[in-house]
Design goal:
The protein is mainly β. It has one helix spanning 2-12, and strands at residues 13-20, 26-33, 38-40, 43-48, 53-58, 64-69, 74-77, 83-87, 92-94, 97-99, 104-109, 115-120. It has one domain (2-120). The N and C termini lie far apart (44 Å).
């Protein structure tokens, strides 16, 4: 019975590996919905998340940022396979502003090595 239930779960979701933006890249599992995964040069480019997911971003001086990504929306990575964008599952505070749930968040690494985080609500 367990084998059958696992087979059903596997038919709905696929699991892929990606690197996230950090001073030291970290391997993590990303649960993607089946037939939504695309790659660029063997790196995950984007997919629709099969479940909510938290992405941790580490900057210099020990700063850490936690980005809650929404299930059933795209998670996007840059050409190097590092985290770039997702839709927020809940409101977060970025610098002095709030990024509301359902906003899209975009991440780039600045010259200092710290992530530059911006959000847009469409």
């Amino acid at each position: 019975m367990k084998k059958y239930s696992l087979t059903i779960l596997a038919s709905f979701l696929s699991v892929v590996t990606a690197n996230f933006v950090a001073n030291q890249p970290v391997d993590a599992s990303v649960v993607c919905e089946m037939n939504t995964v695309s790659y660029h040069n063997y790196n995950l480019e984007k997919c629709i998340l099969g479940q909510n997911m938290s992405v941790r971003l580490a900057g210099i001086q020990g700063k850490q940022y936690k980005v809650p990504c929404q299930a059933k929306s795209y998670i996007i990575f840059n050409k190097q396979g590092k985290f770039f964008s997702c839709q927020l599952a809940k409101t977060i505070r970025v610098q002095k502003n709030n990024c509301p749930a359902k906003s899209n968040i975009f991440v780039a690494v600045g010259k200092t090595g710290d992530p530059s985080i911006r959000c847009w609500h469409f």
